[in-house]
């Protein structure tokens, strides 16, 4: 799709993380052919540095073994402290225990090397369709409206130009809601994405939601986050002119 045809078009950003230069080139070429904007990193540490500088991608493709630094799972654990970034593992490691751990704890999909470029693009498309439509453009600071911007990598909201610190859970919660802005996100989905490795209950979510709303909302103005009784929450989409 051409941006000149659709004014709402947003080219989605993919980050590929692998210590193998040849793999990165293959991934980049395949995804660029699929009309994605691709950033590459040779390590988890480099990827985190790029995210701090340029903002979150829409999806990351991550290798498991990246010596001598952090593993792919360690990168996933770090980034999921404050976001719900969709991950596809792309690795030569195919033992059942690792695959199961990856799919249960960190990734939306798991692809074994060597891989088919066409299949990789198809799986990226499937994950992005399922996970949300990213109504807001992901930048170092994501603009909601003239009053509010969110800096996801640095875990803060900028309200009327004033930075306000967010906890990792508040930042991740906001990411989940804003990713599907304008649509109801069910309570069950939020609980599973915030706390995938432990039992979680609505009361716990309500506490974090209350604290988040106190930080970003003004009682004299329409709320950003609206509760849908018995269903979930919706982040009210605000379309801003440029």
Structure overview:
The protein has helices at residues 21-33, 44-54, 72-79, 96-106, 117-131, 168-179, 187-194, 202-216, and strands spanning 13-17, 37-41, 59-62, 87-91, 109-112, 142-143, 148-151, 156-159, 162-165, 184-186, 225-228, 232-235. With 242 residues, it is an alpha/beta fold. The protein folds into two domains: 13-131, Response regulator (Rossmann fold), CATH 3.40.50; 142-235, Winged helix-like DNA-binding domain superfamily/Winged helix DNA-binding domain (Arc Repressor Mutant, subunit A, Orthogonal Bundle). The strands form three sheets. It has a five-stranded parallel beta sheet, with helices on both faces. Helix 1 (21-33) packs across helix 5 and helix 6 (168-179) crosses helix 8 (202-216).
Name the descriptors.
242 residues, alpha/beta, Rossmann fold, Arc Repressor Mutant, subunit A, 2 domains, four-stranded antiparallel sheet, globular, disordered N terminus
Compressed to H and E, one letter per element, the order equals EHEHEHEHEHEEEEHEHHEE
Give the integer mean of the pLDDT values.
90
Structural class by sheet pairing and helices:
alpha/beta
Please estimate the helix content: 25-40%
How many structural units, i.e. domains? 2
Number of strands: 12
Would you identify the regions where 5 or more consecutive residues have pLDDT less than 50? 1-8
In CATH, the architecture of the largest domain is: 3-Layer(aba) Sandwich
């Amino acid at each position: 799709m051409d941006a000149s045809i659709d004014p709402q078009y947003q080219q989605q950003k993919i980050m590929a993380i692998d210590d193998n230069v040849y793999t990165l080139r293959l991934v980049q070429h395949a995804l660029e052919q699929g009309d994605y904007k691709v950033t590459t990193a040779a390590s988890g540490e480099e990827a985190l540095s790029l995210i701090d500088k340029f903002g979150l991608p829409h999806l990351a493709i991550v290798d498991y073994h990246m010596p001598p630094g952090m593993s792919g799972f360690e990168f996933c654990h770090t980034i999921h402290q404050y976001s719900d970034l969709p991950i596809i593992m792309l690795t030569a490691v195919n033992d059942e225990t690792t695959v199961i751990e990856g799919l249960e704890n960190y990734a939306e999909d798991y692809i074994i090397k060597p891989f088919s470029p066409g299949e990789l693009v198809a799986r990226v498309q499937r994950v992005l369709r399922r996970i949300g439509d990213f109504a807001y453009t992901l930048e170092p600071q994501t603009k909601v409206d003239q009053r509010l911007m969110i800096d996801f990598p640095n875990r803060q909201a900028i309200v009327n130009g004033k930075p306000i610190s967010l906890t990792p859970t508040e930042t991740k919660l906001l990411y989940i809601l804003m990713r599907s802005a304008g649509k109801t996100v069910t309570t069950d989905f939020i609980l599973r994405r915030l706390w995938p490795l432990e039992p979680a209950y609505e009361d716990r979510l309500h506490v974090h939601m209350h604290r988040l709303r106190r930080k970003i909302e003004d009682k004299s103005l329409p709320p950003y986050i609206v509760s849908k009784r018995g269903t979930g929450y919706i982040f009210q989409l605000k379309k801003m002119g440029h």
